[in-house]
């Protein structure tokens, strides 16, 4: 017996990649906090698989990556939400990741480091604001909800 309306599995994942300490956690958590999204954080089985995929053809790597991530999504009951995956090692298999999920998007986070500590702190604050605005713009373009777009009420 079916329970209500069944939605299709969500295939439009978001892979957040970047160097350590570049703001990937902030961006991943910000995206994952939006309605219809879920932040998976760093998926440990995915992270453990990445080194084994060096030199593996992209199609084979994509199949193995998808199998791991779908298992995690199924066990977490989030297969119908737009998952945000933010394992740093995904950078090394990004092509295979996008092959596994053709409708997915990748967000590359880059942090600019300046010379003096006070200047760095001020720049980092500006960067977070700009990053937040870029995340909002990204979500609005993809149909997400941001401050400039109100939910129907």
Plain-language structure description:
By secondary structure, the chain is an alpha/beta fold. Helix content is about 40%, strand content about 10%. It is built from five helices and four strands. It has helices spanning about 25-30, 45-50, 60-75, 95-100, 115-140, and strands spanning about 15-20, 35-40, 80-85, 105-110. The chain has a four-stranded parallel β-sheet, with helices on both faces. Helix 3 (about 60-75) packs across helix 4 (about 95-100). The chain is globular and about 35 Å long. The two termini are about 30 Å apart. About 25% of the residues are buried. Mean pLDDT is about 80; it is low at about 145-153.
Task: Identify the notable features of this structure and list them briefly.
single chain, 153 residues, alpha/beta, four-stranded parallel β-sheet, 5 helices, 42% helix, disordered C terminus
**SSE string:** EHEHHEHEH
Structural class, from secondary structure content?
Answer: alpha/beta
| Individual helix count | 5
Please give the order of strands in the largest beta sheet: 2-3-1-4
Low-confidence blocks of residues: 145-153
Q: Tell me the number of strands.
A: 4
Helix content: 40-55%
Terminal CA distance: 32 Å
Approximate shape? globular
Radius of gyration: 17 Å
Main beta sheet strand tally, sense and closure: 4 strands, parallel
Strand content: 5-15%
- Mean pLDDT comes to 78
Overview in brief:
The protein has 153 residues and is of the alpha/beta class. It has helices at residues 24-32, 44-49, 58-75, 94-100, 117-141, and strands at 14-18, 37-41, 82-85, 105-109.
